[in-house]
Design a protein that fits this description.
13 helices, Rossmann fold, RNA-binding, seven-stranded mixed β-sheet, 27 strands, Ribosomal Protein L25, Chain P, elongated
Length: 565
RNA sequence: UGGGACGUCGCCAAGCGGUAAGGCCCGGGGUUUUGAUCCCCGUAUGCGCAGGUUCGAAUCCUGCCGUCCCAGCCA
């Protein structure tokens, strides 16, 4: 064993896979799959599964299929399919030729259903949905057998064929597995295998089928047909594993994949269920699936997150079987770490306050050459025009303040980032007493040099009035005001916890001229403010829109907080 | 009240009988023309609780307690 062997803390799924490889199971091969139902957009919880499945395939020289679990045409559509393909790719994963649809296997599935009937292990049941529920029993009381449970193989075969032929109405009959009506596991009480759905047009198979296989039947068969070795899913399917195994053990499928369950991701201040996310979109609580406040991949992308930051997040949170709610700070840390290294710096004044430098030569313009990144020279430089009239941020000036306030105060000095030290001599107010501009003087000796005999501790950013560019800036905050909005059970709906201030739009912001050439999706650090990206949806002819991805860490905000308290 | 799973720092999470990794958050200090970054330093005598086995237990055993999931012709 080598001394400097790096032990990557593997999660329990990888441990299982490693011991399987060692034991020579599946010929030492690893084949996983990511199997979303195309009934909504992918969210960060799916990213966890994608990183797990594709990551394992990459690390063990295996493969990972993308498979659409499209057995319920009612809720599915091609828009979702397209978005899922795009999102998986954007995250940085490639399924190569291995794109499948569960609907590819409808004919095979039907043959296996016939096989089960022939073996006396499945039957057509005429009970209504309500009756089925009654017969199923409860968590503590055994169910009782359906009166149709002992139909002959011939009759079952005939009925299934006629179900397929469209002879019966929706809900009239289902195909059920004949397992155990008194099993303590509800999933084993003769689960439904097929139901009738006439008149719906399936996005892949059109009108060729009017019976559709259930998840519990489709999934194990699809996995086996694709020669999946490890079928990784979330914890709520653990109860289905006996059924998964039963299907594989009682049909002539070519192999028996192993189902492994891990806990799904919960993130504070948002919701993760597709049902709830769909509701937010449908009810107009957000702009759409790609609203930058949404925890969807599309939303995070538009918000300014990078694929790498999301992958990093997934490795940081790990994979286990314990219930978890990850704090937003974890996600924010990942994107800050990425953007700190990889994004160019710019200056942008979000809440402009005019500054007139009264002793600056009339009409003079200096082109200042400024580094695009303070720690990375390879990012080059740009030039910024300096003029006698500037904007600074309203938050960077106070008429009087405590010594802790390291910005501009009346009579005080401050460094203009990348430029001169200025002193505020006069505060100009309008009739209402509102500060409208500041008259300052500047120290010509302080460009690229510290002033003699005194120290100026504050540095603030600025933009030239003459050359600045108007922009719209959207400041996002958490979507919900409660850490766990869906903990609200019956009494309160999660929608009541929507944060009314999750979006603040600034329409008066002024950004430095270099930003005028930025392209949609391009990311920057606005110095002293945060990371921003150019919105993906730029309306023609309007000011550019910048989305705030995340603020900078702000220890001043913490000090302020303490002072108030 | 049946079955399945899970309980290690505020939040994630390693640990797999030899004496509690790491990350995020947090606190303190240093550098800095971003109150950013970066760099130091600090943070569980404790692993849901109670017993037991053992020279030795977060790890094994027993019993409690707590949390989550399951009664779709959804996935």
């Amino acid at each position: 064993m080598s001394e400097d062997e790096t032990v990557v803390a593997g999660n329990f799924v990888r441990q299982i896979i490693e011991s399987d490889i060692e034991a020579g199971k599946h010929d030492g091969k690893v084949a996983t799959r990511f199997p979303p139902e195309p009934n909504g957009y992918l969210h960060i919880g799916h990213a966890k599964s994608i990183c797990l499945n594709f990551g394992i395939a990459m690390d063990y020289q295996g493969t990972c299929n993308l498979r659409f679990d499209d057995t319920n045409p009612h809720k599915e559509n091609v828009e979702y399919i397209e978005s899922i393909r795009q999102d998986v790719h954007w995250l940085g994963y490639d399924w190569g030729e291995r794109l499948y649809y569960a609907s590819n296997y409808f004919e095979r599935l039907y043959e296996y259903a016939v096989e089960l009937i022939t073996a006396g292990k499945a039957y057509v049941c005429d009970l209504t949905a309500d009756e089925t529920r009654e017969y199923r029993g409860t968590l503590t009381a055994a169910g009782k057998p359906s009166p149709f449970r002992e139909r002959s193989v011939e009759e079952n075969l005939d009925l299934l064929q006629r179900m397929r032929a469209g002879e019966f109405e929706d809900g009239a009959r289902v195909l059920r597995a004949k397992i155990d009506m008194s099993s303590p596991n509800m999933n084993m009480r003769d689960p439904t295998l097929y139901r009738i759905r006439r008149g719906v047009i399936h996005h892949q198979t059109g009108e060729s089928w009017c019976i559709y296989p259930m998840y519990d039947f489709t999934h194990p068969v699809s996995d086996a047909l694709e020669r999946i070795t490890h079928s990784i899913c979330t914890l709520e399917f653990a109860d289905h594993r006996p059924l998964y195994d039963w299907i594989l053990d009682n049909t002539s499928v070519p192999c028996h994949p192993q189902q492994i369950e891990f806990s799904r991701l919960n993130l504070e201040y948002t919701v993760m269920s597709k049902r709830k996310l769909t509701a937010l979109v449908d009810e107009g609580c957000v702009e759409g699936w790609d609203d930058p406040r949404m925890p969807t991949i599309a939303g995070l992308r538009r918000r300014g997150f990078t694929p790498g930051s999301i992958r990093e997040f997934c490795t940081r949170i790990g994979v286990s079987k314990s219930e978890n709610t990850v704090q937003m700070g974890m996600l924010e840390s990942c994107i800050r770490e990425d953007l700190n290294v990889n994004s160019q710096r710019r200056m942008a004044v979000l809440h402009p306050l005019k500054v007139v430098i009264t002793d600056y030569p009339e009409g003079q313009v200096e082109q200042l050459e400024v580094a695009n990144h303070p720690q990375d020279e390879s990012m080059g430089v740009r030039s910024i025009p300096f003029t006698g009239e500037l904007y600074i941020d309203k938050n960077d000036f106070l008429e009087t303040a405590s010594k802790k306030f390291k910005r501009l105060v009346t009579g005080g000095e401050v460094r203009l980032r990348n430029a001169y030290v200025i002193r505020c001599n006069e505060v100009i107010k309008d009739a209402a007493g509102e500060i409208i501009e500041l008259h300052c003087s500047y120290d010509p000796a302080t460009l690229g040099a510290n002033p003699e005999g005194r120290k100026v501790k504050g540095v603030i950013h600025w933009v030239s009035v003459e050359y600045g560019v108007e922009a719209e800036v959207r400041l996002y905050d958490r979507l919900f005001s409660q850490p766990v909005p869906d903990s609200a059970k019956e009494d309160k709906d999660y929608r009541e916890y929507l944060n009314p201030d999750s979006l603040r739009t600034l329409t008066q912001s002024i950004v430095e001229p270099a930003l005028a050439e930025a392209n949609p999706g391009e990311r920057f650090q606005f110095e002293r403010e945060g990371y921003f990206c150019v919105d993906l949806h730029q309306p023609a002819g309007s000011p550019m829109i910048f989305n705030r991805t995340v603020t900078l860490r702000d220890s001043w905000a913490k000090i302020e907080e303490k002072q108030k308290a």
